[in-house]
Write a structure and sequence with these properties.
alpha/beta, TIM Barrel, 6-stranded parallel beta sheet, 3-stranded antiparallel beta sheet, binds flavin mononucleotide
């Protein structure tokens, strides 16, 4: 049987090892993890989700404190429309995040940034433009547009000097979403450099309804592959979601991919940004401990561990400090849900909000344990220590296991 290392993935003018580590916000796919993928010749992703919060933690900036101080009189108000991000600070923070990553890059691989459209930040157009332009200014190799249809996103950066040299990719979960995207970007005379096709078994938000289980990744890949061929279009396809072994990856390439995007296997690596105690929760999870629910205020279904502290927590919205999910009108579904419960209970201490969660605060604190469907198999990828903990893996070990394994086997750490 073939192994993944028998293939190479060409994106733009770069020949790469066919492994892309997917973006995982907030700082879960962090700089260290992305740099391993690049060093080994593949593609790593950082994420720009909540980037000012990330640079505060990593590089001691004070953006969150400053924003909260500026808007603190609004904390009790249900109307968050006046809480705006300072675009200059946002640019500064994004540039810092990307520069400090790219400065450390070694090897022949690439580092991309995952940019989610659903992070409207109370000013969707302008904040998205600033995030993308600042990432390009700071030398990012590529931008993966995710969590949204991105119908107007490429146009926002069409005047940037790097528009035609930076790699641009889009994540879709259906042919229809891809068709819409290509139709809307046609007049820019610039196709995406790659398309990540994310199936229903992925981690994070899903591009499906609650009927996600009825879809099959490789069928969607074949459908998109055939349609592109009919149109005479050649765009590299990168299947994602549930690619758990090197052999899964080979099957995904044989179905029409040039490489794969993977994430869940890397959540239990030493480099991954999750705290070690959370990595143990991922390891311990059984199949019944994972659910797809609708608590994300984005409106997309999201897969997570049922034991996530984010579920049914009733914390006060934190939009003055964060506010990443506020749409163009300053609206977030969690703010509504929280105020509805506050009205009923009238005691902040006792509030439980189960239909939505404050994703900003909980992602910031690593309390929303989003994960791929096969998280329950992670325990089979390692050994257990005498104290019962599962051993963390190096990202290089997992990367090489994808690359060199055959027959659906997984190499355990020594
Ligand atoms: C913990 C976690 C967080 C994720 N966060 C994001 C994200 O912020 N943006 C995004 O586009 N995809 C996100 N994803 C999806 C991954 O980038 C990837 O496409 C998908 O999980 C691949 O499937 P796999 O996890 O089964 O390998 C996340 C996945 C995980 C496991």
């Amino acid at each position: 049987m073939k192994r993944l290392d028998d293939y190479r993935m060409t994106l733009g003018n770069h020949e790469l090892v066919p492994i892309m580590i997917g973006g995982m916000g907030v700082d879960i796919s962090n700089t260290d993890l992305a740099l391993v993928a690049a060093r080994l010749g593949g593609v790593g992703h950082i994420s720009d989700a909540m980037v000012p919060t990330v640079t505060d933690r990593r590089y001691k900036t004070k953006y969150v404190k400053g924003k909260l101080a500026k808007y603190k009189t609004n904390v009790e108000s249900a109307d968050k429309s006046l809480v705006q991000f300072d675009l200059g600070e946002l640019a500064e923070s994004q540039k810092m995040h990307v520069t400090k990553t790219m400065e450390r890059k070694e090897g022949d691989g690439l580092v991309y940034i995952n940019v989610m459209e659903k992070l409207g930040m109370n000013n969707p157009r302008e904040t998205l433009k600033v995030r993308m332009e600042s990432a390009m200014d700071a030398g990012i190799d590529g931008i993966t547009m995710s969590a949204g249809l991105h119908l107007g996103t490429m146009a926002l950066i069409a005047d940037h000097p790097r528009f035609r040299d930076v790699h641009l990719g889009i994540i879709v979960s259906s042919l229809r979403a891809l068709q819409l995207f290509l139709r809307k970007t046609k007049n820019l005379d610039r196709l995406p450099d790659y398309i990540v096709i994310e199936g229903p078994l992925a981690g994070g938000h899903l591009g499906f309804g609650q009927d996600w289980a009825e879809f099959d990744l490789l069928k969607i890949v074949a459908e998109i592959r055939d349609w592109l061929a009919e149109q005479g279009l050649t765009i590299p396809l990168i299947p994602a979601g549930g690619v758990f072994t090197g052999s899964d990856a080979v099957r995904a390439i044989e179905a029409g991919g040039v490489g794969v995007q993977v994430a869940t296997r890397f959540t239990v690596t030493e480099e991954c940004g999750l705290p070690d105690r959370v990595k143990q929760e991922y390891y311990k999870a059984g199949e019944g401990d994972i659910e797809v629910n609708m608590i994300s205020p984005t409106g997309y279904p999201m897969r997570m561990l049922k034991s996530s502290p984010a579920i049914c927590s009733g914390i006060r919205p934190n939009c003055e400090a964060f506010g990443y999910l506020l749409d163009s009108k300053g609206h977030c579904d969690y703010v509504d849900a929280y105020n509805r419960e506050l009205e009923k209970v009238r005691d902040e201490e006792k509030i439980r909000v189960c239909d939505k969660t404050c994703l900003c605060t909980h992602m910031r604190k690593f309390q929303c344990w989003t994960c791929g469907h096969y998280t329950y198999r992670l325990k089979d990828t390692t050994v257990q220590e005498a104290n019962g903990d599962y051993r963390l893996l190096s990202a290089e070990h997992v990367f090489n296991d994808y690359l060199y394994s055959t027959d659906d086997q997984i190499l355990l750490p020594r």
